[in-house]
Structure formats: structure tokens, C-alpha cells
Write a structure and sequence with these properties.
This protein has 540 residues and is mainly beta. The strands form six sheets. Strands 2-3-4-1-5-6-7 form a seven-stranded mixed β-sheet, with helices on both faces. Strands 8, 9, 11, 12, 13, 15 and 16 form a seven-stranded antiparallel β-sheet that branches. Strands 17-23-19-18-24-25 form a six-stranded antiparallel barrel. The longest helix has 16 residues. The protein starts with a strand and ends with a strand. The chain has seven helices and 32 strands.
Length: 540
């Protein structure tokens, strides 16, 4: 909260040409330096190519005031608090999906903009998937209602509303409000005298839907930068959204990508000078001069609070709309914040007897043992090819179709990235055909542990206790007594059987035994059977 304003970030997402930028313009009273397709390339092509930011504010609703922190006693009552809604206008073209993913990670509520004459389209669906990953609330905006014949307009709106309700039925946004508007009646070339329709109702609906997110000013400062430019005689300005902590005039900030530390000279929130800002605020920071071309996007942080990582251990959840398996050794586009790099994955799960354990999403436990998987475990598994090239129908499959509640992956980045712990990770196949009606988003997760050492394969991976299940078959050589037998054909004679003492073996007649010791020098071994042995022939 800065300057008596509570900031909430609302994403404007949807298919290309659904009228997102026109809607942001109709709602906004204040524009940033990058709002409403101001970059020359956007104007030349007539489409949004980058994130745009603008805002409007309303009196803070009475229902939200109890959630505000109490002002310090010395400051008194202060100005009447206002709710500032920062609109994050995201591109709609399929080729810019990585920009959309970066923008979606800073929003608190999502507006899904639908062209009422066309309904759900490919990128509308991808935006809906991103929304399910990145935020908790959704408002569906049926735009361009002015293009519907006046006599049939309400019937067409009702029909599209029912279609959208059905689309949302199996998502976390079931029952989300749907509202019709005309952000730019007559289209882009229409005169400005044409007043937008339904905008005041949309503002009222957003005010009702918005809740104040939990903001925390403690912890190290971290800001996601999305635009950077210089002002002659003043310095370089970085604009973005504060992800954690707080900042004040005179503080020093680090730009990890450039490996430099700069002092904060001035700060603004939508052209209003401020002396402090905290998590959730949309902020412009002016620092001592550097070339803005070196930092189009990235992170700014408290000095020495972020590190470059070469690999990461992440918690993984497959996106159900993605067709095909998630296979170990496969490469995906990995997005963390505004960075997207290629990464190779290795999947692993808990041991089968721990499949039902409660997921842990704030740390990785190196003391546990994990089970290697040829692919992510899910109910629609397909056979996978092993290292030998043979199809293995059992590799990576869950016991009796039972899947674990949590799975993990080791991600090895082709290029090192800078990102905080516990940040959102999204894996996708951005090289897929953008004209195909398929979901390119494959999985999402949380970064639990970053591997900073470039030689992590030698220094850290040995601590990662991931094992493979191997099945071996042997024979019972002879029965010693009712509780002990001698086995053979399970080990070579040079094998150190002591390493396998205590492991369980299953006998073909149903008894369960334990390897007790080696027996002689030929690879034979002694098996102890706690319950009386009746007749034994083979084991595994």
C-alpha cells in the first residue's frame, strides 16, 4: 500500500483481436509509458506485441477496509484509502504466449476477453489454462456486443453466456461472473464520440470480485521488470511489479543480469511520486544511468539476495489438456518469471507406499528416497522406450493405476537463469504448430531448490537419492529347514552380496523372505523366511 492506495493487478487476456487493448483503454484513467500499444512496432502492425500497463481507481469498498493494516499512530487517519486496479494488457497472438505467461504471474485476478461473435478460440483456451495456474479469480468479458444485430442481441448474449458457463464447468472458475460490453463500438476506426457500453457495470463487478491479496513488506526486495528506458539528465527507469519485500528512496538494488548495484534516486506509481512501495505495487524506479537495452525484462532485487542457477528441483503437475506423455530426457520450454529457456527433465516420484502422502510445496527433502520414473505418472500413460530402445510397458507406471499426490523433476537448463525459490515454473512446447488446435502448455510447478554450482552433477546430484526399481529372478537351490533356504542364479559370483543383505525376496509360492547372508563363493545366498516355508521353487 503506497500513498493511501491499495493496488490489485488484473490481467486482460484473450485471443488476438478480441478487443483487450480497447477494453483496457476504456477502463483506464492513467496510462503507463507502455500502455495501449505505444511501441512503434505495435502501432505499425495494429496488434499488441508486449505487456501494457494502465490503471483506474475507485474508493476502497467498506468490505475491504478491515483487511487494511492499521496506520502508525503518529500519522493519524491519513487520506481516504482508494482501490487502485492495475490492468496488465497481455498480447493475444499465439507466437507471444511466453510474454502472456510472464504477465500472468503478477496478476491477482484475470479478465478473459471473448469476442462475442466468435466465442472461445485457441488462445482463449490457452489463456484460461494459464489463469487456472496463476490466479484464483476470473471475470469473463463478452466484448463487441455492438456487432450483434440489435433485435437478436440479448438472445445471442444469453446463448454465449451459457456456452461459457459450460466451458468453465470443469475448471476452478466454475460459476465465475460473465458480463457483456462493447469497449469500442464500431471498431478501431470508429470516432471517439462513440461511448463504450457496459464499462461502468464492469467496474462495479470488478470492485465486487476483488479481494485484497495478502501483502508482506518483510523479506528481501524483489521486483519483476517488464520495461526499461532512460530519461536524459535523470537516469534509467525500470518499471515493474514488486514480487516481495519493500523499497524506499535511497535504497540500493542489484540487477543480477548485469551484475551491478544501483542506488534508487526516485520512484513513481503511475506518475505519482512515492517514497516507499511494497509487494504487489506497480512501480517505476529511477536509478543512476545504464544502457536500458541491456535490460528489457528481468529481475531487480536487494543486493546479493538472488543467485544464478543451472538446474532446479521442482514439484510438477501435468496440465490435463496437454496431449501426450511427459517423458524423462525430453526437452521443454521452461518459463520462470519473464525468462524462457530450454530445459531437459528427469521425473521421479515417492516410493509406492508413500503415494498418498500430503504434498509439500515449500521445500525439498534430500533425506528421503525417491523412485525414478521414465515419465510423469498419470492415468493415461503410454508405453515408453527405455535406453536400450525397447518398449517397456511397466517403466514409470503407477501401481494398479494409482498415482502419487506429488511428483518432482530435475530440470537442467540449457542456459542459466536467475529466479527466486518457490517461484512458479511453467513447461511448454512453444515449437508446436500455432495453427493446430492443441494445448502447448505441458506442466506447471514450484521451484523448490535451485542448483547454483555449475558442476552440480558432481557436487549435489549424488545427494539426490533417486533409485530405479529392478526385478531379478533366481532359483531355490535347496531347503535347509522350515525357515531357511539357499538361493542361486540371482547374483554373479563376484557380486558383493553383503550389499543386498536385508532386501526382501518374493517366492513363487507366496512366501516373503529376506536375504540373510552369502553362502559360499559361487554367488549363492541364504534366505530367511519368517513364516514356515512349505514348498519353494523360484524367487524374484
Amino acid at each position: 500500500m503506497a500513498g493511501g492506495r491499495v493496488n490489485v493487478n488484473v490481467g486482460v487476456l484473450g485471443h488476438i483481436d478480441s478487443g483487450k487493448t480497447a477494453l483496457a483503454r476504456a477502463l483506464s484513467t492513467t496510462a503507463s509509458t507502455a500502455a495501449f500499444d505505444r511501441p512503434p512496432q505495435s502501432r505499425a502492425r495494429g496488434v499488441t506485441l508486449d505487456l501494457g500497463f494502465s490503471s483506474f481507481s475507485v474508493p476502497l469498498p467498506a468490505r475491504l477496509r478491515p483487511a487494511l493494516p492499521a496506520p502508525p499512530p503518529a500519522t493519524g487517519a491519513g487520506p481516504e484509502p482508494r482501490l487502485q486496479v492495475t490492468l496488465v494488457d497481455c498480447p493475444g497472438h499465439a507466437s507471444l504466449i511466453r510474454t502472456v505467461i510472464g504477465g500472468a504471474q503478477i496478476i491477482d485476478l484475470m479478465m478473459l476477453v471473448i469476442d462475442v461473435t466468435k466465442g472461445m478460440q485457441t488462445q482463449s483456451a490457452e489463456c484460461l489454462v494459464i489463469g487456472q495456474i496463476a490466479c484464483q479469480k476470473l471475470v469473463v468479458v463478452l466484448n463487441k456486443i455492438d456487432l450483434l444485430p440489435e433485435g437478436k442481441r440479448q438472445a445471442a448474449i444469453d446463448k454465449m453466456t451459457k456456452k461459457m458457463q459450460k466451458t468453465l464447468e470443469n475448471t476452478k472458475f466454475r460459476g465465475a461472473p460473465i458480463i457483456p460490453v462493447a469497449a469500442k463500438p464500431g471498431g478501431p476506426e470508429a470516432p471517439e464520440t462513440e461511448a463504450p457500453q457496459g464499462i461502468s457495470e464492469l467496474i462495479e463487478l470488478l470492485t465486487l470480485q476483488i479481494s485484497i491479496p495478502t501483502r508482506d513488506s518483510s523479506g528481501p526486495f524483489l521486483m519483476s521488470v517488464d520495461h526499461c528506458f532512460s530519461i536524459k539528465g535523470q537516469g534509467t527507469v525500470m518499471t515493474g511489479t514488486i514480487l516481495s519485500g519493500s523499497i524506499s528512496l535511497g535504497d540500493s538494488v542489484e540487477i543480477p543480469a548485469l551484475k551491478v548495484v544501483k542506488k534508487v534516486k526516485s520512484m513513481q506509481i503511475f506518475h505519482t511520486p512515492v517514497t516507499t512501495a511494497m509487494q504487489g505495487d506497480r512501480l517505476g524506479i529511477c536509478v543512476t544511468q545504464f544502457d536500458p537495452k541491456l535490460l528489457e525484462r528481468g529481475l531487480v532485487c536487494a543486493p546479493e539476495s538472488l543467485h544464478i542457477i543451472h538446474a532446479a528441483l521442482i514439484s510438477v503437475e501435468k496440465i490435463p489438456y496437454f496431449r501426450g506423455p511427459l517423458q524423462t530426457k525430453a526437452k521443454f520450454h521452461i518459463t520462470v518469471g519473464h525468462e524462457t529457456v530450454m530445459g531437459r527433465l528427469m521425473f521421479f516420484s515417492p516410493a509406492p507406499d508413500s503415494f498418498d502422502h500430503e504434498p509439500v510445496l515449500d521445500a525439498f527433502d534430500f533425506s528421503r528416497e525417491y523412485l525414478f520414473q521414465e515419465q510423469y505418472l498419470c492415468k493415461d500413460l503410454v508405453p515408453v522406450a527405455t535406453d536400450s530402445g525397447q518398449t517397456n510397458e511397466k517403466a514409470g507406471q503407477a501401481t494398479d493405476g494409482h498415482c502419487p499426490r506429488q511428483q518432482w523433476a530435475l530440470v537442467e537448463f540449457e542456459k542459466p537463469v536467475t529466479c527466486p525459490q518457490l517461484c512458479l515454473v511453467i513447461g511448454s512446447r512453444l515449437d508446436a504448430d500455432i495453427h493446430a488446435n492443441t494445448c502447448r502448455l505441458a506442466f506447471h510447478g514450484v521451484l523448490l531448490h535451485g542448483l547454483e554450482d555449475k558442476n552440480y552433477a558432481e557436487s549435489l546430484l549424488p545427494k539426490l537419492r533417486v533409485y530405479k526399481l529392478k526385478h531379478k529372478h533366481g532359483l531355490v537351490d535347496r531347503v535347509i529347514d522350515d525357515y531357511n533356504v539357499i538361493g542361486r542364479s540371482l547374483f554373479k559370483k563376484e557380486t558383493n552380496i553383503q550389499l543386498f543383505v536385508g532386501l526382501k525376496v518374493d517366492l513363487s509360492t507366496g512366501e516373503l523372505g529376506v536375504i540373510d547372508s552369502a553362502f559360499g563363493q559361487s554367488g549363492k545366498f541364504k534366505i530367511h523366511i519368517p513364516e514356515q516355508c512349505l514348498s519353494t521353487y523360484t524367487m524374484c
